[in-house]
Amino acid sequence: MSEPVQHVSHAAGEGHHEPGHHPRKAGWRVAASATLHCLTGCAIGEVLGMVIGTALGWPNVPTLALAIALAFFFGYALTLVGLRRAGVDWRKALRLALAADTLSILVMEIVDNAVMVAVPGAMDAGLTSGLFWGALAFALLVAFLVTTPINKWIIGRGRGHAVIHAYHH
């Protein structure tokens, strides 16, 4: 598991995390930023998976499976790129990415795919359909709104994106 880190608030509301210290309360701005980072990778994978599955006329289950797999791949990939740029070796970067992003991506994927399935006709709508794109955008928005408080809770305990934040400074 990740080491606990401390969240020190600055006047602008941004946080700084130092390895080895006990966590303090995380702010909504930091949580929203972490969630947006996670959502970016998830959305790339989710959209790509939905587009591929829909374009190929796949049934819902294989389309969802592809979208979920690609969401995890791109979610982790974005974190790995940042950590590697910060000079973190591959093994440690992979461990940090898994620890930082897994719960966030998992919640995001459960929520956005549940919304897509719940919107009547969205999974069967074609790529030129406003229903398909509208439902997908709505699903990602709902996933962001549900995942942000979870990330706030995780970051407040010195886990998740709080751990990798220290490598970006």
**Biggest sheet statistics:** 2 strands, antiparallel
Strand-pairing-aware structural class: mainly alpha
Question: What is the count of β-strands?
Answer: 2
Helix share of residues? 55-70%
User: Which residues sit in consecutive blocks of at least 5 with pLDDT less than 50?
Assistant: 1-23
Strand fraction? 5-15%
Question: What are the secondary-structure elements, in order, as H or E?
Answer: EEHHHHH
What descriptors fit this protein?
mainly alpha, 2 strands, 169 residues, two-stranded antiparallel ribbon, globular, disordered N terminus, 5 helices
Task: Map the helices and strands.
Layout: E1 5-9, E2 15-19, H1 28-55, H2 60-85, H3 90-118, H4 130-156, H5 161-165
Antiparallel strand pairs: 1-2
Helix pairs in contact: 1-2, 1-3, 1-4, 2-3, 3-4
What does this structure look like?
- A hairpin with a 5-residue loop joins strand 1 (5-9) and strand 2 (15-19).
- With 169 residues, the protein is mostly helical.
- Helix 1 (28-55) crosses helix 3 and helix 1 runs antiparallel to helix 4.
- The protein has helices at residues 28-55, 60-85, 90-118, 130-156, 161-165; strands spanning 5-9, 15-19.
Short description:
It is built from five helices and two strands. It is mostly helical and 169 residues long.
